[in-house]
């Protein structure tokens, strides 16, 4: 395979090793892959001190913003969680070789549609060393080789993790390759590595997603930035209704703000704004959340509690399209469920959105009308996660509509082929 003019020799060598590894990986039996995953989990635990030391070097970077620091941080608890995620994959069925369809034609040909690996996955991601482990493990379990390009902020951590995982005995050489994350050149090389990489998966913010979608000559699966919405409907009337809504909203906003499935916007039905807006705004402010509000929300809060209203910031037009990844939320009053649906479809990233209501008809209308990968009824957007859906680790949350949508994991990083069995048939 010829080297593109813009590709360096080190990158080409890594991509060639990954390409060569795809064939033996595709032939590994489920028991062999599971044994390698267990060995990887044991290796991470055995080398925990080295991994944390490398992570400390990355965390010493004074320019890290809070949400990136949180994503980058590893500690013994998070390393243990990475090991648990590897073992969770072991417990899942191996998708490779699944017969999706089988039928016999009138001429006697037996046709089977069989699940197969994609080949070589390319993952571009930011300061999240957990992605290094998840991507390597998912690729192995699905019979794929993987080429990783992490963010420069996690350079030391990613290098050590890949060193540990790649040293597991029995893993085909080239199964896990890590490109230099300290130069932007490697991103461009991956974007044009057609023939080496079968599918590119960007996992990060909107800037990274846009870079890939505008420039890649390699097929890609978008993972979604998360401008996620919550909508409190009119059919919240009792104290228990409001308490349920409070709990979901606070969890979706505050449980972990640096991730794409945290809530960034709250919409409130006009019929309950006078009572519910002051209540939930007060709880959000008490939890340390900065609240940016539209005029109707500010008016409702001011009428109930002028002092509380003084703590609100007026929302700007840009707020409705912003993924904060911080303790910030924008709140607006809408006329009804259809207005909420229209607002979400106009401003969201089509990731995850929730309706809070006791009205089944309104809920069903919302679930059908909101054009997002994951839509919820009375549950936190924080459940948009491969592990929470029972898929094990995930490559990301896809908000596109072709090939994969929502949390995509083992089955979504496979393809299929047709096996046709005959007995001398000719056409």
Keywords summarizing the entry:
four-stranded parallel beta sheet, alpha/beta, Aldehyde Dehydrogenase, Chain A, domain 2, globular, 42% helix, seven-stranded parallel beta sheet, 2 domains, 15 helices, 427 residues, Aldehyde Dehydrogenase, Chain A, domain 1
Describe the structure.
- This protein has helices at residues 9-26, 30-46, 48-59, 66-72, 76-91, 129-141, 155-166, 185-191, 206-215, 239-254, 270-286, 295-304, 306-309, 337-347, 360-369, and strands spanning 99-104, 110-117, 120-125, 145-149, 176-178, 199-203, 228-232, 263-269, 290-293, 313-314, 328-334, 352-356, 374-377, 396-398, 406-408, 414-421.
- The chain has 427 residues and is of the alpha/beta class.
- The strands form 4 sheets. The chain has a 7-stranded parallel sheet. A 4-stranded parallel sheet has the order 5-4-3-6, sandwiched between helices. A 3-stranded antiparallel sheet has the order 1-2-16, with no helix packed on it.
- Strand 7 (228-232), helix 10 and strand 8 (263-269) form a beta-alpha-beta unit.
- Helix 10 packs across helix 11.
- The model has no long low-confidence stretch (mean pLDDT 95).
């Amino acid at each position: 395979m010829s080297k593109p003019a813009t590709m360096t020799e080190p990158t080409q060598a890594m991509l060639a090793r990954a390409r060569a590894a795809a064939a033996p990986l595709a032939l590994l039996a489920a028991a062999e892959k599971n044994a390698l995953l267990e060995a990887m989990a044991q290796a991470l635990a055995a080398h925990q001190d080295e991994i944390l030391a490398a992570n400390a070097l990355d965390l010493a970077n004074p320019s890290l913003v809070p949400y990136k620091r949180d994503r980058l941080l590893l500690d013994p608890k998070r390393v243990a969680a990475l090991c648990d995620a590897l073992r969770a994959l072991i417990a899942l069925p191996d998708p490779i070789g699944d017969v999706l369809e089988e039928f016999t034609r009138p001429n006697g040909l037996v046709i089977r549609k069989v699940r197969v690996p994609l080949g070589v996955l390319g993952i571009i991601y930011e300061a999240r060393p957990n992605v290094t482990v998840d991507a390597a493990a998912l690729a192995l379990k699905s019979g794929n080789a993987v080429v990783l390009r992490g963010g420069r902020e996690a350079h030391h951590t990613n290098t050590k993790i890949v060193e540990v995982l790649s040293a597991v005995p029995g893993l085909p050489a080239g199964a896990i390759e890590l490109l230099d994350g300290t130069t932007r050149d490697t991103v461009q090389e991956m974007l044009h590595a057609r023939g080496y990489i079968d599918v590119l998966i960007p996992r990060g913010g909107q800037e990274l997603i846009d870079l890939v979608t505008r420039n890649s000559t390699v097929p890609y699966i978008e993972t979604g930035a998360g401008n996620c919405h919550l909508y409190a409907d009119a059919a919240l009337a009792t104290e228990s209704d409001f308490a349920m809504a409070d709990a979901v909203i606070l969890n979706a906003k505050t449980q972990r703000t640096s991730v794409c499935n945290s809530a960034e916007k709250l919409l409130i039905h006009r019929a309950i704004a006078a009572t519910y807006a002051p209540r939930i705004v007060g709880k959000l402010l008490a939890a340390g959340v900065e609240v940016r509000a539209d005029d109707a929300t500010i008016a409702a809060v001011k009428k109930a509690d002028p002092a509380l209203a003084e703590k609100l910031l007026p929302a700007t037009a840009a707020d409705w399209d912003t993924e904060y990844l911080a303790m910030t939320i924008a709140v607006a009053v809408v006329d009804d469920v259809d207005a909420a649906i229209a607002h979400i479809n106009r401003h969201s990233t089509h990731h995850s959105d929730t309706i809070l209501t006791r009205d089944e008809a309104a809920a069903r209308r919302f679930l059908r009308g909101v054009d997002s990968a994951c839509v919820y009824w009375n549950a936190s957007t924080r459940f948009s996660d491969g592990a929470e859906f029972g898929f094990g680790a995930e490559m990301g949350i896809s908000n596109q509509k072709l090939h994969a949508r929502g949390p995509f994991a083992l089955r979504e990083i496979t393809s299929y082929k047709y096996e046709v069995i005959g007995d001398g048939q000719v056409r």
